[in-house]
Structures are given as structure tokens and as C-alpha cells.
Amino acid sequence: MPRMFIASERRRQGAYHVLLLSTGSVASIKIPLIVQALHADPEQRFEVQVAATNTSLTFYDGKSVEEVSNGKSQVWTDQDEWGVGLGSMNTFMYTHPITAKHLKVVIEELGYKVIGPQGSKGLACGDIG
User: Fold this and answer.
1) Cβ distance 76 to 49 under 8 Å?
2) Which residues pair with 17 in a beta bridge?
3) Which of 1, 4, 36, 42 is the Cys-Cys partner for 68 at CB 3.0 to 4.6 Å?
4) What is the value of pTM for the model shown?
5) What domain of life does the UniProt record list for this protein's source (predicted)?
6) From CA 73, how far away is CA 32, in angstroms rounded?
7) What does the pLDDT profile of the chain (129 residues) look like in tens digits?
8) CB of 76 within 8 A of CB of 50?
């Protein structure tokens, strides 16, 4: 049975939530080092997860990410289930035609279910969205 990632269950107030994407490039070999550097932050400001293609895992072992992060970060692959929530966005961003095109691809071509918007609140820019 695949593991499941639920973004809302991993949210930590005040932290920067980082998702590193690892593809088949040889640069993927640096993923464990990047994860380690982010977790070495003295203020512990980063929550890090890695989404990897199977090809990228030929350049590093996914378990090394868990080791260098003391189990705080994991590598997620296509075999895992993703319950992903998109963060809030400015109303102008959400209503922009490019966003509509991206959502169409996500729904029609990738087959994801999109639920939203989920209400409104004050945003950092001062807008309500």
C-alpha cells in the first residue's frame, strides 16, 4: 500500500515549507546535501520534502535523505499517494487566465481533483482572497 502525503498534516506555523523536485539530471546527486543544509539551519525554519522521479534515484539513495534529516524529510515517488493542497493566493493571481490554463491541465490531463477556493481571509498583500 502506498504511503500518503497530506500537506495539511505537515504544516508547521512559521516554517518555510520546501518541496525539492528531483528529476533524472545528474544534479540530483546534490539532493541529500541540500536537505542536510536546510535542516542545519540554526533557527530550524525549514520543513523539507523531496518528490523524485525513479530515474533521479539512480543518482542517490532516497534513504540518505531521511538519514541526513534525522527522519524529518522523506522522498516521495509516483508510487506514493499525494494529497496536495495549494496554498492561498492573491485574488488577482487566482483569477488570472494563466491560472485557469494550469488548473485545466491539472484536472483534464493529470486527472487530479481540485477543490477550492476554500473561503477567504486576509492575505499578506492586504487583499482578501
Assistant:
1) yes
2) 47
3) 36
4) 0.61
5) Eukaryota
6) 10
7) 567 777 777 788 888 989 898 888 888 899 999 999 999 999 999 999 999 988 899 999 999 999 999 999 999 987 776 655 555 577 788 888 998 898 888 888 877 777 777 667 777 677 776
8) yes
